[in-house]
Structure formats: C-alpha cells, structure tokens
Write a structure and sequence with these properties.
Blueprint lengths: L12 E4 L6 H4 L5 E4 H4 L14 H10 L8
Parallel strand pairs: 1-2
C-alpha cells in the first residue's frame, strides 16, 4: 500500500468513533476522516450500525473525494 500513497485516484478513509485530537499528526498522509456514527450509519435509529440509504452514502463519499474511479 505504501507504494500507492501518491496515486491520484487512491483515497484512504480513516474511520473512528470520533475525530481524535492527534488525528492531524497520526493519520496516513492523504487520508480523509469519516466518523463511524455520523457518516457511515443512520443517526438516531433504534438498531445500531444501520447503513445510510444509498443517496446519503453517495453524498458522504463524494464529500470525501471518492467516486467511481477512486480506489
């Protein structure tokens, strides 16, 4: 993976419960942050870990710079 860190179409997503204070100093260079609960799950539902509907997931991925040609 280290050989591909500079690839223009590579996006590494750092997923955590919440953004950590040391994220800026400790994440993989070029990685983007996604909050597990607010970006990748439906908030305020009875069943934890419910994936968001496709349109919300797509919007999150676009915000993170991820599209059809992204690895």
């Amino acid at each position: 993976m280290a050989d591909h860190l500079d690839d223009a179409n590579l996006r590494i997503v750092d997923v955590r419960w919440q953004e950590q204070p040391n994220y800026a100093a400790a994440h993989i260079p070029g990685a983007v942050y996604a909050d597990l609960f607010t970006d990748l799950m439906v908030p305020d539902v009875q069943v934890p870990s419910v994936a968001p509907p496709p349109e919300l997931f797509s919007a999150t991925m676009q915000r993170l710079g991820i599209g059809p040609d992204t690895m």
